[in-house]
Amino acid sequence: MIVVAGEALIDLVPQAHGDVTASLLPARGGGPYNTAIALGRLGAGVSFCSRISTDAFGAALVERLRAERVGTGLIQRGPEPTTLALASIDAGGSAAFSFYVEGSADRLFELPGELGADTRALSLGTCSLILEPGASAYEELMRREAGRGIFIALDPNIRAGLIPDADAYRARFKSWLPYVSLLKLSEEDADWLGPDVEGWLAAGPAAVVITRGGDGLTVFTRDGREFSVPGERVDVVDTIGAGDTVNAALLYALSERDLLSARALASAPGRTWREVLAFAARAAAITCSRAGAEPPNAGEMRTGSAPPFN
User: Where are the beta strands (DSSP E) in the chain?
Assistant: First the structure.
């Protein structure tokens, strides 16, 4: 079982007609939420750990998790409103977000009881590790489960507009690294944090994966190896959920190869890493080929067919 912990929210995505935005379409999202959905579609055993509102948006978020075969037993519920994220899409399909988070349900996440004995990995990241008081609870969950030997995957997925003190966040990020097995981040995130792959690896992770959009992915391992794969060419509709799909695809591919331990990850051969990275690149390309965070299912990954998602 892979547990994904973090926020679930509603993206308000502009629906454009020519140069005029006619309306905003609500879409279920949030980095960890998208990661959980992607894992469910790929066929992984996955459970989502979060606090979700009891409002109509929250009900829709939970309904989709169940429809995608994502476990909901670790979800806390509360009457607070659902977080909203206003998306803007540029001419190249890249997405930027403005957030409405004051008093929202996911900020009030509390440390749950010990995760199940079948838990093999815990994935965390994005807004959930920024917004207090929930951020401290997620951080405590990370530390506790790492202490039990659980594989920890971290995707910071930086949202600079939500970070009031950049230096304090960067210091906090470094404090997480001794507990992390796999660090995945975009090239932009790495630049914002102050790129220091060598230092990050020395602090704890067995491997660091950096995504470079259409240029592909690169992994750096603790013993100094580096492997890259190119991105897959695709007509980009938008990039919403692409990084979250990469996160899920990496975890799924590593799980299928029994590599969800820091020791196994550190010794994985180059051929295996290239296979894992190529799998993640293909999954991200399919997600980018259709609107919104709609990751591929296992059948699409096997056949390479990626019809528009309806």
Answer: 2-5, 9-17, 20-29, 46-53, 71-78, 84-89, 95-100, 121-125, 151-155, 182-186, 207-211, 217-221, 226-229
pTM over 0.85: yes
Render pLDDT for 251-306 as a digit per residue (tens, 0 to 9): 999 999 999 998 899 889 999 999 999 999 999 999 888 877 789 988 888 865 44
Burial 166-203 (b: 16+ CB within 10 A, else e): eeebeeebbebbebbbbbbbbebbbebbeeebeebbeb
**Is residue 153 classed as helix, strand or coil in its secondary structure?**
strand
Q: Which DSSP category does 8 fall into?
A: -
Give the residue from 81, 184, 169 showing the smallest Cα distance to 130. Answer: 169
Q: Per residue in 33-91, pLDDT tens?
A: 999 999 999 999 999 999 999 999 999 999 999 999 999 999 999 999 999 988 766 65
